[in-house]
Amino acid sequence: MKQKINVKVLGLVIAIFVMCSGCALQKSENVNKGSLAYEKTSSIETLPSESTTKLIAESTTELIAESTTELIAESTTELIAESTITEPTATELIYVETTTNEFEVIETTTSETIIETTVSKEGQQSDGESIVYATAVANIRNKPSTKGKIIGQTYINQEYVCVEKLNNGWYLLEINGVQVYSYGEYFSSKPTSKKPKDDPYTYEEMVADIERLQCKYSVGFKSEVLGTTYDDRNMYLLTVGNPEAEKSVLFTASIHGAEYISSQLVMAQVEYYLDNIKEKYNGVSFEEILNKVCIYVIPMVNPDGVAISQNGFFAIRNQELREKLFTIGYTDNWSSNARGVDLNRNFPTTGFGTDNGKKQAYTGPSFKYYEGECPASEKETQLIIDFVKSKENLCAYISYHTKGEVIYWNKGQKGELYNNTSNIVKIIAKLTGYKNIKAYQIKSGIDYEWAILEEKIPGCTVEIGDMDSYFPVRQSQWPDIWKRNQYVMIAVSKYALD
């Protein structure tokens, strides 16, 4: 039975909302900045038609459910729950629970328009497991309440095992053997007709793309595993072109977990060059360039961090690691690896553990900036160091990051090393339109800083994605990122050739 709230209760709800909305909206803006509906992307004429690497984001209306709730008890028969849920229209929902086990929903927007609707509450606890599908991007928590700690998030149309549908409307889910909670309103028994606006490029998709390319190209492409991470994911090395070439260049991506769109980019670049081997760049075919300069690519340096950013701590299968991560707190802009170490602060450089001469702010495992117990303490860092040291012919070390559309490179190098680094950066800046940051900077422990100062290899960080965009960078930016960076790898290789 549907029951309307009485005028007294409704008045109290509105009064509480008016007093709290300013604070709630401000908090919502801080947490969910950039969570907007995205414009539909269009095809890019230069993309290979057979490519299945995620080159273009599919578009639909994105619903992001981020809620923070405080329960206020007025009597034993009525509870008033205030929730802030950020959607494309910055909507707030206020749920009023009654003794009839139903919700009255008062929906207000930032324009102060009030719409009144009624939705049913889950009335009974379910028997047995069932498969459910997420209809929104919603928080996953360690308790069936908004007071529980956020440990992950759902993705639209992703399948989940629902162990129980609880009486308070929350679902008990099991993910990778871990029991977690999310609010039942954001699930259905069938996939939604909507496709997610932001469909992140995952480790599993990358592995499938690598395997497909290996089958498609028996010559000119090779994949191998450099080693494994703490949660037993592979760090892949791709060899594009002639492995016996006299010169080589190295590109890396996703050293920070939340920067996974950079993995999508390097995989797309590799596939494009292989698919269009006869195409010319500045009068020289890709084939000729790749015969004389080998491109090495580590497409996902930090796959554990990517998994955490995209799915939360329950993506980590190792129970000991996962329990330690729970003490840190989840955020989707997670940068570190599965041990809470920022790999891009873990390289053995002079002044390790400092930032422009000052001690790093993070002294223990964190979602970013913690340098680790000692230089090269992490498996992922050591794998890169070992590989670079094994190659005496590396002419460039390019590290893709997000965001800002800038290029960092000046670490105080001198002479020919300075000139070669500067020339490479000028080439990338001209192609991409990204800002060439010439100012001298030292942030110790960074990968390309180590490559320049310790290994004497020209290097830089290329930050893709608009600085004002949401982080992690959304798929809505993909067409522009691809257009700007499509020829970067081949251009840097041609510079090494010349």
Write the layout of secondary structure elements.
Blueprint: H1 7-31, E1 64-65, E2 69-73, E3 79-84, E4 92-97, E5 102-108, E6 114-120, E7 130-134, E8 137-141, E9 150-153, E10 159-165, E11 170-175, E12 178-183, E13 187-188, H2 203-216, E14 221-228, E15 234-240, E16 247-253, H3 261-275, E17 280-281, E18 284-285, H4 286-292, E19 293-298, H5 303-311, H6 319-326, E20 354-355, E21 358-359, H7 379-390, E22 394-402, E23 406-408, H8 415-432, E24 435-437, H9 447-453, E25 459-464, H10 478-485, H11 488-497
Parallel strand pairs: 1-8, 16-19, 16-22, 22-25, 23-24
Antiparallel strand pairs: 2-3, 3-4, 4-5, 5-6, 7-10, 7-13, 8-9, 10-11, 11-12, 14-15, 15-19, 17-18, 20-21, 23-25
Helix pairs in contact: 2-3, 3-10, 4-11, 8-11
Keywords:
alpha+beta; 498 residues; 27% helix
Structure, described:
This protein is 27% helix and 25% strand. It has 498 residues and is of the alpha+beta class.
Write down the Rg.
Answer: 25 Å
Secondary structure tally, helices:
11
Structural shape = globular
- The first-to-last residue Cα distance is 78 Å
The counted number of beta strands is: 25
Query: Largest sheet, if any?
Result: 8 strands, mixed
How would you briefly describe this protein structure?
This protein has 11 helices and 25 strands. It has helices at residues 7-31, 203-216, 261-275, 286-292, 303-311, 319-326, 379-390, 415-432, 447-453, 478-485, 488-497, and strands at residues 64-65, 69-73, 79-84, 92-97, 102-108, 114-120, 130-134, 137-141, 150-153, 159-165, 170-175, 178-183, 187-188, 221-228, 234-240, 247-253, 280-281, 284-285, 293-298, 354-355, 358-359, 394-402, 406-408, 435-437, 459-464.
